[in-house]
Specification:
Layout lengths: L2 H11 L3 E5 L16 H13 L5 E4 L1 H5 L3 H13 L5 E8 L3 H12 L1 H4 L5 E4 L5 H8 L5 E7 L5 H4 L3 E2 L2 E2 H9 L8 E5 L7 H7 L5 E4 L8 H8 L6 E5 L1 H4 L7 H25 L1
Parallel strand pairs: 1-2, 1-10, 2-3, 3-4, 4-5, 5-8, 8-9, 9-10
Antiparallel strand pairs: 6-7
Helix pairs in contact: 2-4, 2-13, 5-7, 11-13
The protein binds the ligand O=c1ccn([C@@H]2O[C@H](COP(=O)(O)O)[C@@H](O)[C@H]2O)c(=O)[nH]1.
């Protein structure tokens, strides 16, 4: 999916909601466990219930890898089920020496390798340019680089000063020499909304993937007021608050309700941005 197609989806749906598919068999409604593939059955219902309000879906790969071969099968079926109009994100947080990153990129981008062809993958920047480049070798695919993450441990390294900058700023600035905003996004936690104005100064056009609203307590309003751009520029993720809104037979209805609440709020922030 291109930058302008993503931006058009945001306008069309009046939403920049990314639904995180962090599907844990221990948390899904018990009655689904008798299904041949409970994780896929759950994801299918969640996607059907939320597609009207979401522009992106983000399976977190850990939840699938933890299930072994069955998990990979659920992941592949889930990716195939995500509507073409929606942006898909493999939240895999990969990155290694180039030789190895190349295989990670093949795994998530080349359908002929592992059966998966995500639009994008999250990548850790710690090993530098040659660990990221193999992901950028795939035309039309996106790298979403961890910049300022939502967890408290982000202070350990990402907030450390190096010269005039903090490390996350250096990551954002340097990575922009590797690819343009049409191929490169950054992860910025919703819990870090205070830093968003500063981040927008150094990355005015890049989309930001923003996890941390809902279960982690980040404010959608703060993120939106500081992070929105003319193209939208945000994908705000919510996983647990949508997926596990109910553990009963009404789980999909409740998920839809939660997604709709977030979309309604987003529509308001988009309208406010246009008026600025
Ligand atoms: O900084 C980060 C980077 C990634 N995540 C991931 O996003 C979702 C958040 O889930 P919630 O249930 O909405 O809290 C999850 O997959 C994380 O691994 C993040 O939270 N923060």
């Amino acid at each position: 999916m291109t930058y302008s197609e993503l931006s058009e989806q945001i306008v069309q749906k009046q939403s920049y909601l990314c639904v995180g598919l962090d599907t844990d068999p221990r948390k899904i409604p018990k009655y689904l466990l008798t299904e041949p593939d409970p994780v896929f059955t759950f994801n299918k219902a969640i996607i059907d219930a939320t597609a009207e309000f979401a522009v992106a879906y983000k399976p977190n790969i850990a939840f699938y890898e933890a299930q072994g071969p069955r998990g990979w099968e659920s992941l592949q079926k889930t990716l195939d089920y995500i509507p073409d109009a929606c942006f898909s994100i493999a939240d895999a947080k990969r990155g290694d020496i180039g030789n190895t990153s190349d295989l990670y990129a093949r795994t998530f981008f080349d359908a002929e390798a592992a059966g998966l062809s995500f639009d994008s993958i999250t990548v850790a920047p710690y090993m530098g340019h040659d660990s990221v480049m193999p992901f950028l070798a795939y035309d039309g695919k996106w790298v979403i680089l961890l910049a300022l993450t939502s967890n408290v441990g982000s202070a350990d390294f990402q907030r450390q000063s190096i010269g005039e900058q903090e490390l996350f700023e250096k990551v954002i600035e340097t990575a922009q020499t590797w690819a343009g905003p049409d191929r490169l996004m950054f992860v910025v936690g919703a819990t870090q909304a205070d830093e968003l104005s500063r981040i927008r100064e150094i990355a005015p056009d890049n989309f930001l993937l923003v996890p941390g609203v809902g279960a982690q307590g980040g404010s959608l309003e703060d993120v939106s007021r500081r992070g929105l751009t003319a193209a939208g520029g945000l994908l705000v993720n919510a996983s647990r608050s949508i997926l596990y809104a109910s553990d009963g037979t009404d789980f999909a209805d409740k998920a839809r309700h939660e997604a709709k609440i977030l979309q309604r709020e987003m529509a308001q922030y988009l309208a406010d941005y246009q008026k600025k």
